[in-house]
Amino acid sequence: MWILLLIPFVGLLWVPFYNRELPDLLGFPFFYWYQLLWVPVTAFLTWLVYRGHPEREERQ
């Protein structure tokens, strides 16, 4: 499950992939909306990894 957290890491570090202006979305260049799209995707992937691990007892 931890491998899922590498997806946004690689997707955002591979700058030549998204270092362009087209296609634009609602007037925003691809560079900006591509990065903003990763915010909910990363949150969802983090949630999946969290839910994939067994529940741990609270330590007191």
Averaged pLDDT, please? 85
Structural class: mainly alpha
How many strands in all? 0
> H/E series, N to C?
HHH
What is the rounded Rg?
16 Å
* Number of separate helices: 3
Fraction in helix: 55-70%
| Coarse morphology | elongated
Q: Which short descriptors sum up this protein?
A:
3 helices; 58% helix; 60 residues; elongated; mainly alpha
What does this structure look like?
The protein is an all-alpha fold and 60 residues long. Helices cover 58% and strands 0% of the residues. It contains 3 helices and no strands. It has helices at 6-13, 15-18, 30-52. Helix 1 (6-13) runs antiparallel to helix 3 (30-52). The chain is elongated. The two termini are 27 Å apart. The mean pLDDT is 85.
Compact overview of the structure:
With about 60 residues, this protein is mainly alpha-helical. The chain has helices at about 5-15, 15-20, 30-50. The longest helix is centred in the C-terminal third of the chain and has 23 residues, at about 30-50.
Describe the SSE topology:
Layout: H1 6-13, H2 15-18, H3 30-52
Helix pairs in contact: 1-3
